[in-house]
Batch of 4 targets.
Target 1
Amino acid sequence: MKSLIIIPTYNEKDNIERMVRKVLSIDRGYHMLIVDDGSPDGTAAIVKRLKAENDDRLFIIEREGKLGLGTAYITAFKWALENHYDFIFEMDADFSHNPDDLVRLHDACLNGADLAIGSRYIKGINVVNWPIGRILISYLASKYVRVVTGMRVMDPTAGFKCYKSNTLRAINLDKIKMAGYGFQIEMKFTVWKLGFKIVELPIVFTDRKLGVSKMSGGIFNEALWGVAGLKLKSWFVPFKTIHRPKEISAN
Ligand SMILES: Nc1nc2c(ncn2[C@@H]2O[C@H](COP(=O)(O)OP(=O)(O)OP(=O)(O)O)[C@@H](O)[C@H]2O)c(=O)[nH]1
Ligand SMILES: [Mg+2]
């Protein structure tokens, strides 16, 4: 059984080397795919140097410019399915997600989950070093999503996840429209609507120590309005689509 850890990057030169080495050192033989959006700080060059040491386990897709987290993941999911991975993970480069938790997400999927989510809001609020305002926005946003969609996921914007490949195969990835936090919500909503089993595990989320945030007001607004749109659309468009991937190449 093959597992792929996908990490989208934009200007993560201070984090990426330590992250790649850490993930590759976990004793489950994980493969990694970095999707870099032409980071001006040279993140991709660091990945390519590391790739020389780990050619069979580390892969990179380089895109021309900052095209957003959502399409980075969609591109990576298609590549993962074409390359027959069984478990496909999402994780940030900045150590907000503790790589040691990957095996817990993995085990949840080995034990029957179709999607396992590393969740900040299972037992209270497990966020370290975020300003109180940001915690409040994120926490209230998760409540808002639950009320509007009816989906009982405690951390709908979470970006630390493991999908079984069949879960992703069942989704028409070309129909996923949102980019930032909205993308994370839209994926969970789609998985939930398709009737898959979602399991949330408590994790501690720590604010990035190195590098800069890409959070923006636009991403927030998209999520706010997009969620209502998702719910509305779900009343009219049936959720049964099969994904047929096109070829995507990585190095
Ligand atoms: N390929 C790609 N990666 C991105 C893009 N925007 C963000 N990322 C990466 O996606 C992950 C999550 O982004 P973050 O900037 O950490 O977002 P956040 O955790 O909400 O905010 P901060 O941690 O405060 O920066 C990180 O690995 C980023 O480098 C993008 O447009 N393209
Ligand atoms: Mg972050």
Target 2
Amino acid sequence: MPRRGDPRKYAQQGVELTGYLALDSLPRLRAAVVDGEGKIHARLSFGISDEGKRVLDGRIEGCVNLICQRCLEPVEHEISSTIYVGIVWSEDQAKALPRSIDPWIVGEGQADFYDIVEEEVLLDLPQVAYHAEQCVPRERFSSESAEEVGAKGPRQNPFQVLEQLKGTPKK
Ligand SMILES: [Zn+2]
């Protein structure tokens, strides 16, 4: 999938872009997840809406690893996001859009498609993640501090330490 292109031209031509985006090419998302594991698939359809506006209609799917706030081990998070934005190049044009369409203000020329995909995925990431199953026995969880539980994990890294500082579980 190309990283950049002219979204206005694509809308006129009804271009559809699909493909996988490497996590390493999305630095802000990469910084928000545990490791480089996971994948992001995007389908971006450019076109003209019923109201005659240039729009981007997109669907993003994939998975990334977050930190489980209970056991501080990685937990897989499934990504399923949609994008529906009007392609405009000024604030005035953004205001002229129907209320149902959020503006995507692009400058002259080429826009960065990875950027809007990354933005949407980041918006949809949960604040805290947990394993679906009970990964830490309740009684152990309540009798030990988060630090002790975390120290038992084999994959101690600075990110996890930061998570411990930020997210001390409630007793
Ligand atoms: Zn867990």
Target 3
Amino acid sequence: MKIGIIGAGASGIMAAIQIKRANKNIQIDLFDINKSIGKKILASGNGRCNISNTNLSSKNYIGENKTFCQYALEKFSFKKFEEFCKSIGLLLDIKDTNKVYPLSNEAKSVVSLLQSQVNHLNINVIYETRIEKVSKENKKFYLKSKTKKFFNYDKVLISSGLSAAPQLNSTQDALIIAKTFGHTINLTYPSLVGLCMNSNYHHKLAGFKKEVKLTLLINTKIKDEKQGDLLFTKYGVSGFAVLDISQKASYYLSLKKHVSIDINFFPNLSKQELDKKIKILIHSNENEKLSTLLGGLISNKLPLVLLQECNLDLNIKAKYIYEEEINSIINKLLAWRVTIIDTQGFKHSEVSGGGIKTSEINNTTYESKKCQNLYFTGEAIDIVGYRGGYNLHFAWASGYTCAKAMA
Ligand SMILES: Cc1cc2nc3c(=O)[nH]c(=O)nc-3n(C[C@H](O)[C@H](O)[C@H](O)COP(=O)(O)OP(=O)(O)OC[C@H]3O[C@@H](n4cnc5c(N)ncnc54)[C@H](O)[C@@H]3O)c2cc1C
């Protein structure tokens, strides 16, 4: 049997290794645009590679039908993944947060151990080759790059990922090929990405970072809440809490909905506690400017913008502030609404949301329901994980599950 695998990322590599381990007589051609395998794995987790998570369930994913991924997550559980890692000589560092990293703390060691398995199993990797067309005639598949044709495949797996980080040679080819076989594509959108704001002040706050609670509002209705770091940037906001909320924000932006975020700068204080702290500041030096005193509460980048947004005199002395003005400062600090107008786009996103409609793929085999012996895995499918190793784990698990069916 001859199998073609398009894309040597996490899911394609896993599938190739598992197929060969199940049956070494199967001939595999593994294609990738890049000069080496696992380019995105190398870039993951800032080069540290948050490779998996011990707490796996479809609850950690988003998609039209997120339960689609449950079967693969159970079949290739964290325990199974750990056994696989041991089998290639990769030791893991399991954090208290359930996130999993290579013990070496380097993505490089993950890729080099996978490469060693690929070599050991005689998987034929065809580098620097972008497959642009897949066709099927008389039960055999034909693959075509710009300059070459590849013949007579009994089965084909498309594991070529999606649009995030195009600088790493990501493509939308999986979707283009899937469409030629009659598949439906759900809207794709950048996910785990910084958000662009519409304001006349965010650039002044660039570099200001704080733990906050974010409330995502779609057409003013609450859709999500996350607590964690927020970082103001020249374009808007980033940081872990923003990345976490970005998945839904980006999806609704692509549907042209009104997206806004309420920032609570003091998620661990009640309104009364914050009021008390501000009054202590005011009474500490009533002849000082309020903007200077507020620097004792929060980064000194914020007070002037805060007073401006509350329509207060920027030079007002503490002693001249009224009770209702203190109240409006507190309300602003606890629910500072910003309008989100865009994301930073695929170039700066970690993953792509959307993709091939899950109802047209068999979730126990990853075979297309539109074309026998054609398979899809990984990011190309309309399943996207939260931050925390979930995206790589879905790539491993879908590659593994598909390989069991293909072999
Ligand atoms: C900067 C960054 C950091 C990340 N960090 C993490 C993290 O820490 N933890 C986590 O879980 N996830 C992380 N991710 C997401 C994770 O890397 C991906 O979700 C995962 O790699 C997807 O695996 P895949 O096999 O579906 O696709 P990919 O890994 O994207 O592999 C697809 C491969 O196919 C190749 N290809 C594309 N089109 C063609 C074609 N037509 N012909 C031949 N080859 C083709 C591509 O070049 C690529 O090598 C990160 C992503 C980025 C960009």
Target 4
Amino acid sequence: MESRYYDPEIETASRDELRSLQERKLKAIVQHAWDHSPFYKKSFQEANITPDKIRSLDDITRLPFITKEDLRKDQETHPPWGSMLAVPMEETQRVHMTSGTTGTAIKILDTAQDWSNFCHIYARMLYAYGIRKTDMVMPVFSFGPWIGFWAGWYACQEIGCLLFASGGMKTEQRINALATYPITVIGSTPSYAIHMADTARKNDIDLAKKSRIKLSWHTGEPGAVIPGVKNKIESSYGCKAFDFLGSTEIGPWGYNCEFQSGVTHVNEDWAFPEVLDLETDEPVGPGGTGELVLTNLDRRATPFIRYRTRDIVAVTDRSCPCERTLFALEGSVLGRLDDMKKIRGIIVYPSRIEEIVREFEDVDEFQVVFKREGDLDEILVKIDPVPQLDLNSLDAFRDKISQSLQLGLNIRATVEILEHGSLPRWGHKAKRFVDERKDIPF
Ligand SMILES: [Zn+2]
């Protein structure tokens, strides 16, 4: 019988087995960083730590944290690759860049082995969703410097899938490919999946009927865990949609499996997780919420040791029907420290606003503006409705959204219904949230 697991010896390992593997890998990466990365040597010296002091996994807390800002500064001071680079240039094989939605783009280099490890872990996640060698896959992606679906491509190749490249294609050409070929899987940002389905609909093509897609995976934005977005993608394509948790810095680190039980399995043999209390930085246990700090154990060109992801997550010991023994989170990433907004003293997560607004089927697109009127912070939610919305029911529609926001956020938001088509349809890293306030709390 076919195994449910891609790496059974890891995905069902005992805690002791995992711990000893992690310990061995941690010692090796710390030694490697000390020996070859001027950045880490300096930072370990400043923290008065040497590799021989890392004797067990618990000693990880003696190592200093790093942040995206540290990396950005390092690359500015030592252009273009930074002093963090821990291998000779001739050993590097790939460079990828963060999308640079905030600040300058960060460059991340990989050796051939790093990249092969990266793609293997990616394949483990795709396999857990249910992707098999019998599938035909189209990553709907431009294949630019963003790491996005690059590794997904190689991961599918490792599984043995048939791959269809759609990099330079227009949306209409991609839709045509989906209607023509037996493509069973797509990978894209959630926004683009919705945009492509809407475009198909405008051309009278129902992709749920015309395509053979059974599964989709999404990254780049948190959309696929927002019930409204997930439902929209699933009904538009007649598929099961999966959220892919990963970043350019750390790589693929978390996934939900075929059961979609709400448990996120963490690839802890690849990315060692710590979840730290938001106030004290002390580790939290099952039931606790904190910032996810990850150490990549298998990437040598640009090592990431105790990287503060700014992602807020909740630890769980709830088991999943798949019986994986890996470290688990309840739900997905709950919010981003960077994204948290303080409005009239209340913490508001933009993702929560999106969740509420997307519950309404008559919402086609939306934008949220945080602004200050006099001394008071305001949330303005602009709604771009579907074209068939009954114009006589606009007031009732607006009131219903207002009430849901008030209930869900514990704070009043102003809702404005625009004419259909007033807002742009955003692609990758949707800019749906604008903060117009000059001095932002936090
Ligand atoms: Zn599972």
